[in-house]
Design brief:
Number of helices: 14
Shape: globular
Bound molecules: guanosine-5'-diphosphate, magnesium ion
Helix content: 10-25%
Radius of gyration: 28 Å
Largest sheet: 8 strands, antiparallel
Distance between the termini: 57 Å
Number of strands: 34
Strand content: 25-35%
Structural class: alpha+beta
Length: 602
């Protein structure tokens, strides 16, 4: 295709502002999909995305549009995930296109993810076309929202498009604006092949599918290509584009976005941001590339039924095939048996993976409390090299006598909230050890920026924020680095025995409160025994909270003595069966359900 007839773009928006609906309308208006195949939210393919109305993996579609000048244009849309956990995917798909539609719900206005995503687009040097959506609704205030876009984001919104993705109003104008306002891609068809590896995923039939953006040169089926990052060579079996179904093409030239398959076995063999060229006569000049995404939240996943460990392993390995940002290794716990320590990009990512394991693979799971990655600076002698341990699991925290200091990850959180809830939001952030960085107004809403410890956010921060603001706050964050604080490992001891699955890292000032909550909960959850059981929370050797579970008065079978022997036998058998689900800690038996409930967050 002639470069001047191509436009590549993405859509950026806050969740629920109508990005997927708009994408559907653009596809429908251009008859990319026959009407009978059109289903709502065509680009959101995974079940969980559909149910929650969120987009997780970036998706791509090529549409053709006859513009007012009578010429046919090829428009490539890369749909990006809207959620903060996937900011990294947003940033890389932005590098593959030249412009963005900025969709803002005209009944709501700019929200935290609008800002986070539009800043990514600005970083990628995009031309940005503002779209005010949902103008069919009576509460729509397009003038006010346009003004807010100008004030808060600082881009011109005088020509913002007025759209209803629901009724289809403004859709043709949007297509025309894409052609008129977004730049055509640059590139040289005669230069050596240079293509960017934008994304990759595993397909059960075709193996790994690689999404590429051709920068220079041309790629044809059957050619041999080289990945510059590692020098591997592959024979290209297929090339094509998404309409949105995969459709074979003869060649992909500069400015085009499409896919290739090349009998690649795992997603891990493809590095996002890599440069793809021809094996012979290719370029040696690599594109800037991306740093691999790092998991920031870890938790243990254990099967409720330990017999399902192998099933869990299979399921996790299958999911990992498709998701290089999800890490896992075997973990064993005295309380929970064998399971996996898994790393995620954030809490939503964690939930998505856990849900898929439970739903698609039918495995009941116990999830241990999420933990962030701490940097443990070990005590070293004069002249020795510094030693820093990355701690993924509180159970592995070294003895305090060997630790010099601990650093924790911090985030910069941006929260937009109506004025009346501002006080509650400030209090919440303050309670979570936050440091206020900024407080301004974005139209009628306050915009607060806080420096917060990530570990205070992974515990129910988002839920608390939603509840104190009745759902009106929006929230986004980015990692800003590590900082030292007084962090300690809190252990839980039942009858003097430590229970590893319940260990957690806490700020020293909160240890009492957290410890108290945990021991009180456990007192309710652990059945009584024939003897008293102390339940303690401790830091190092120091107990910070304690409860005592009093002894049971009678033997279960006592009332059967001298009575019916078969009844007694039955009772004992029943007890034995119950024991299978019990875990032994010294003399104490704790039902597995107690761990599950103790780990649940209120
Ligand atoms: P996304 O999270 O940005 O992808 O948003 P969706 O496309 O999933 O839309 C969120 C909700 O807004 C859905 O219930 C849509 O039906 C609704 N919606 C989207 N666009 C419009 C619109 O123009 N008018 C109205 N009334 N509702 C819309
Ligand atoms: Mg969506």
């Amino acid at each position: 295709t002639d470069l001047s007839r191509i436009r590549n773009f993405s859509i950026v928006a806050h969740i629920d502002h109508g990005k997927s609906t708009l994408a559907d309308r653009l596809i429908q208006e251009t008859n990319t999909v026959a009407s009978r195949d059109m289903k709502e939210q065509l680009l959101d393919s995974m079940d969980i995305e559909r149910e929650r109305g969120i987009t997780i993996k970036a998706n791509t579609v090529r549409i053709e549009f006859t513009a007012e000048d009578g010429q046919d244009y090829v428009l490539n849309l890369i749909d990006t995930p809207g959620h903060v956990d996937f900011a990294y995917e947003v940033s890389r798909s932005m590098r593959a296109v030249e412009g963005s539609l900025l969709v803002v719900d005209s009944t709501q206005g700019v929200e935290a993810q609008t800002l986070a995503n539009v800043y990514q687009a600005i970083d990628a040097d995009h031309e940005i076309v503002p779209v005010l959506n949902k103008i069919d609704l009576p509460a729509s205030e397009p003038e006010r929202v346009a003004e807010q876009i100008e004030d808060v984001i600082g881009i011109d919104a005088t020509d913002a498009l007025l759209v209803s993705a629901k009724t289809g109003e403004g859709i043709r104008e949007t297509l025309q604006a894409i052609v008129d306002k977004l730049p055509a891609p640059a590139g040289d068809p005669d230069a050596p092949l240079k293509a960017m590896l934008v994304d990759s995923w595993y397909d059960a039939y075709l193996g790994v599918i690689v999404l590429i953006r051709v920068v220079d040169g041309k790629l044809k089926k059957g050619e041999r290509v080289k990945f510059l990052s590692n020098g591997t060579v592959h024979h290209v079996d297929r090339i094509g584009v998404f309409r949105p179904a995969m459709t074979a093409v003869d060649e992909l030239g500069p400015g085009e976005i499409g896919f290739l398959t090349a009998s690649i076995k795992q997603v891990r063999d493809t590095r996002v941001g890599d440069t793809i060229t021809h094996e012979k006569g290719g370029t040696t000049d690599a594109l800037p590339g991306f740093a691999p995404s790092q998991p920031v939240v870890f938790c243990g996943l254990f099967p409720v039924d330990s017999a399902q460990f192998e099933d869990l392993r299979d399921a996790i390995e299958k999911l990992a095939l498709n998701d290089a940002s999800f890490s896992h290794e075997v973990e064993s716990s005295a309380a929970l048996g064998f399971g996996f320590r898994c790393g995620f990009l954030g809490l939503l990512h964690l939930e998505v993976i856990r849900d898929r394991l439970e739903r698609e693979y039918d495995i009941d799971l116990i999830t241990t409390a999420p933990s962030v990655v701490y940097h443990i600076h070990m005590r070293t002698k004069e002249g020795e090299a510094p030693e820093i341990i990355e701690l993924h699991n509180p159970a592995d925290m070294p003895d305090l006598t060997h630790v010099d200091h601990v650093e924790e990850p911090r985030i910069k959180a941006t929260i937009l909230v109506p004025d009346e809830y501002l006080g509650d939001v400030l209090k919440l952030c303050q309670d979570r050890r936050g440091i206020q960085l900024d407080l301004t107004y974005a139209g009628p809403r306050a915009m607060v920026v806080y420096d917060l410890p990530l570990n205070e956010v992974v515990f129910d921060f988002y839920d608390r924020l939603k509840s104190v603001t009745k759902g009106y706050a929006s929230f986004d964050y980015q990692m800003i680095g590590y900082r030292e604080d007084y962090l300690v490992k809190m252990q839980v001891l039942v009858n003097e025995e430590p229970v590893d699955a319940l260990s957690m890292m806490v700020h020293r000032d909160r240890a009492e409160t957290r410890g108290r909550a945990m021991v009180e909960k456990l007192k309710e959850l652990i059945p009584r025994h024939m003897f008293k059981i102390p339940i303690q929370a401790a830091i190092g050797g120091r107990v910070v909270a304690r409860e005592t579970l009093s002894a049971m008065r009678k033997d279960v079978t006592a009332k059967c003595y001298g009575g019916d022997a078969t009844r007694k036998k039955k009772l004992l058998e029943k007890q034995k069966a119950g024991k299978k689900k019990m875990r032994q800690f010294g003399k104490v038996e704790i039902p597995q359900s107690a761990f599950i409930n103790a780990l649940k967050m209120d």
